Amino acid sequence: MSMILKCIECSKEYSFNKIRYECDCGGLLDVVHDIEQVKEVVSKDLFDKRLGSRAFPYFSGVWRYKELILPIDNKYIITRPEGNTNLYNSKKVADYACIKVKNLFLKHEGENPTGSFKDRGMTTGTTMAKLLNSKIVACASTGNTSASMAAFASVGNLKAIVFIPEGKIAFGKLSQALAYGASTIQIKGNFDDAMALVKDASLELNLYLLNSVNPFRLEGQKSIIIEMLHQLNWEVPDWIIVPGGNLGNSSAFGKALNELREIDFIDHLPRIAVIQAEGANPLYLSYLNEFERYIPVKNPETIATAIKIGNPVNYKKAVRAIRWTNGIVEQVSEDEIMNAKAIVDGAGIGAEPASCSTIAGLKKLITKGIIKEDEKVCCILTGNLLKDPDATVNYHMKKLDGFDIKFANEPITCDADLDSVKKVLKRIL
Ligand SMILES: *Cc1c(COP(=O)(O)O)cnc(C)c1O
Ligand SMILES: [Zn+2]
Which of 31, 59, 247, 275 is the most buried (most CB within 10 A)? Predict the structure, then answer.
């Protein structure tokens, strides 16, 4: 099996086994597989057989699809294992979004080992670090990337260095980076500042960069789509809805879908809808002018810290994915995100704020008539409920200033005697 790196701008090709993050022309790189070869070795039957495996490496929801992702020697693979996330139906969520429950699927990537889809990109990213003989991995992060990289680096005995914007990442995520043992550098700036710094530092100090500019991360993230379609017996939904931050997922989804069509696993592509927060919406703004002009957002602001990104690294690949899939971009407000989150959480499923922008986006797109009630939709819930306890608790305790909170579930304080408890119960039952 073979693969190469290829520039998406000028098509210049590079070997995959020398470290490189971008083309000499500055363009982003794709991992290009020999699709004819892939087609010969994989089949739906093969993937079905592996689905029953409890053994390394096919017990992973990423490495099960190895030939489509990273066809390398198993000895390099660093895995928890990851993936194997559930696809949910929820009447409560469907009712909220005004869609029929049988048409709505929620793929919960928060069920990955470190609580976000980033694990699917980190298993491939850290595996490439091993293959390339790098000993130190680095990333800038709004939180989940660092949590994930820290864990996989530890499993693979690599040193991990994370750059995070000081005071701006969710508590659960910061605690993970520290707990898994990464050296954690808090930059006095925002994510985009941290990203620029880690890029420079990686080149000068020979750190292996594991942000989603690294094309091997996106190969791992393709497995969200491959696994989801496998779960749907390769029946293509009409829409896939995903939050857009650095736009790694949006990019990976487009590539995965194209490749699945090339190997004849599917015969048409679903449409991708990328959802951004109003305060961090550079892709949305450029979508409005048909991607003629791209202007980064200077001071991105949103409670959904995982998508609080003003200058997404994968902008050009995401535009390509939207064009390939006849996709769209929508934006949602802070209120819409948090009220949708209360519904997803209250349905017993739960996810972090950024994830719930997908449900807010779905509701909006159905209201606008862009998504039809009888179309099949898969929303990607990107991260776990426990990642951002502050956002959740402050919402329910009505401590989010300026928010129009619709579904608060406030805790009740009660004296420590049975009479008081009875009074309270009488009131609420
Ligand atoms: C990283 C992340 C995102 C943003 O994904 P991109 O691929 O950067 O667009 C959204 N939600 C969660 C929970 C994340 O961790
Ligand atoms: Zn180039």
Answer: 275
Q: Cα separation of 210 and 145, whole Å?
A: 8
Measure 244 CA to ligand 1 centroid, in angstroms.
7
User: Is there an atom of ligand 1 within 6 Å of 138 CB?
Assistant: no
Residue 393 CB contacts under 8 Å (≥ 6 apart), including other chains: 399
Q: Is the CB of 125 under 6 A from ligand 1?
A: no
- Ligand 1 pocket test, pick from 82, 108, 116 with the greatest ligand atom count within 8 Å of Cβ, gives 116
Percent of the chain with pLDDT over 70: 100
Q: Say how far apart CA 57 and CA 334 lie, in whole Å.
A: 40
Q: Which tens digit of pLDDT belongs to each residue from 128-150?
A: 999 999 999 999 998 999 999 99
Strand order across the 271-277 sheet: 87-88, 104-108, 377-381, 239-243, 271-277, 328-332
Q: Which atom of ligand 1 is nearest to the CA of 110?
A: 13
| Parent domain of 297 | 87-114+218-396
Q: Whose CA is nearest to atom 8 of ligand 1?
A: 246
User: Is 29 within the bounds of a domain?
Assistant: no
**CB of 116 sitting under 6 A from ligand 1:** yes
Is there an atom of ligand 1 within 6 Å of 123 CB?
A: no
Is 250 part of a structural domain of the chain? yes
H/E stretch holding 331: strand 328-332
Over the stretch 231-251, which tens digit does the pLDDT of each residue have? 999 999 999 999 999 999 999
CATH number at residue 366: 3.40.50.1100
CA 306 – CA 246 distance, rounded (Å): 9
Task: Name which residue sits closest to atom 3 of ligand 1, judged by CA.
Answer: 306
Give the ligand at the shortest distance from the Cα of 169.
1
Q: Which two tokens stand for residue 159?
A: 């040193």
Tell me the per-residue pLDDT of 309-358, one tens digit each, with 9 for 90 and over: 999 999 999 999 999 999 999 999 999 999 999 999 999 999 999 999 99
- Please tell me the total count of domains within the chain: 1
pLDDT at 167 over 90: no
Of ligand 1's listed atoms, the one at least distance from the Cα of 355 is 11
Distance CA 389, CA 174 (A): 12
